[in-house]
Amino acid sequence: MTKDIERLAAGLEDGLIDRRRDLHRFPEAAWTEFRTASMVAAALSAAGYEVRLGQDVVRRESMLGVPTEEELATHMERAVAQGGDPALIGRMQGGLTGVVGELACGDGPVVALRFDMDANDLDEARDEEHRPCRDGFASINPGVMHACGHDGHVAIGLGVAELLAGIRDRLHGTVRLIFQPGEEGVRGAGPMVDAGALDGVDYLLGGHIGFRVPRTGQLVCGVGGFLATTKFDATFTGVAAHAGAAPEQGRNALLAAASAALNLHAIPRHGQGASRISVGVLNAGQGRNVVPPNALIKGETRGQTTAINDFMYERAREVLAGAARMYGVDLDLTVAGRSVSGRSDPELAALVRREARAMDFFDPTEIIETIDLRGSEDFALMLAEVQSRGGLGTYLMLGSDLAAGHHNARFDFDERCLAPGAALFARCALGCMALPKRL
Fold first, then answer.
1. Is 1 exposed, middle or buried (0-12, 13-18, 19+ CB in 10 A)?
2. 135 secondary structure, DSSP code
3. CA contacts within 13 A on the Cβ side of 320
4. pLDDT one-digit tens code per residue, 217-247
5. Distance between CA 246 and CA 233 in Å, rounded?
6. Among 101, 147, 192, 296, which one is least packed by beta carbons within 10 Å?
7. Using one digit for the tens of pLDDT, what is the confidence trace for 88-146?
8. How far is CA 431 from the centre of its chain?
9. In this structure, are residues 105 and 168 in contact, taking their beta carbons and an 8 Å threshold?
10. H helices of 250-378, where?
């Protein structure tokens, strides 16, 4: 049966590439994946999956970093104009763009596979040296680009859906395919966990194209070292005044934010493991002769463990509040994203390795058991949810030659990894179905 999967996946290759390029041309950022999600839902339904979407799989109250209602409405209109299904998109109002497809095939474990859908806030390169531009599938949406391979993840996920549906009479258990919005900024997993998308899952797999494995044929079977993280927006509100005639009447939000930015980076590192602090954005002021009444910091903390990250964020809150008090301005602090620390289960990583070694595509000398991510991914929230209930999970890295690094305007990957990637996930799902239920 596993050899059948590879043969069937090879037959899907052209379609997977076409789908990836279509998604690349029409990218959508976090909570605005209306076109993408509607196409996923339609494809899953056509393949025979029971499909849930919108408020059935995303808890509205848990959503972080959501665009305004006006912005969401604009993106919904654009999605319809670009070929999205209006009826399906209408069920995603408010940015509820998660999709879950389930294929129930009798008694056996519940195996969940997660694929993220969102693009980056980035303008794509526009010259002929950049293959997507040269071949006509570069982003047509200003300020948005698939610079992290999530277009490939969606294509692989729908390939897996087709492969498993084609052999459903030989499956024993339940396949649950989770298409997640808002991975960038670690915003989408939490609301799906809170909505119950991981309930009853015995085995969970996820993965990424090209990260830490920049050559086609490489594979990491299980990732550890997920850094916990908190993303935050700090808005300082002061009082404007004439900078020459009456500066004493003002309250300087720019200085408060500048002081905070410097002192955030002065927070002591943690002695029990890696810790991080970053101020990525500081916007402030209105004019050279006006005491600045407004400032915005966008920053993040990270930690090797969730406890270390919590320490860093609490110190960050103290620094921000102290700077606001020192300059007599107001502070509004909001969490824009979060995830926890985590580590793949060795038992499931070993299953991935076994399946990969049986495939001709992967270089056996480049199949790596485990590696530390040294970054953050909100898959860790899903992993923690499954593990807390007694299930197992792993996160794999699918090697690919890259034109440029992730989150770069020239990012592109080797599409030869798509069909074998779908085959590997499908083989692993079958392997998990042969294991005992854990819940």
1. exposed
2. T
3. 25
4. 999 999 999 999 999 999 999 999 999 999 9
5. 30
6. 296
7. 999 999 999 999 999 999 999 999 999 999 999 999 999 999 999 999 999 999 999 99
8. 25
9. yes
10. 253-264, 306-327, 346-357
Containing 205, the helix (H) or strand (E) segment is strand 203-209
b/e burial code for range 279-314 (CB count within 10 A of at least 16 → b): beebebbeeeeebbbbbebbbbbbbbbbebbebbbe
Q: pLDDT band for position 325 (50/70/90)?
A: very high
**φ and ψ of 99, to 5 deg:** -140, 140
CA-wise closest residue to 108 among 202, 208, 234: 202
Single out the residue of 64, 66, 62, 42 nearest to residue 53, CA to CA: 42
Residue pair 173/433 in contact by the 8 Å Cβ criterion: yes
CB atoms within 10 A of CB 90: 13
List the Cα angle 152/156/160 in 5-degree steps: 170
- What contacts 355, CB < 8 A, 6 or more positions away? 2, 424, 427, 428, 431
Cα–Cα distance between 323 and 331 in angstroms, integer? 9
Q: Which two tokens stand for residue 320?
A: 């921000």
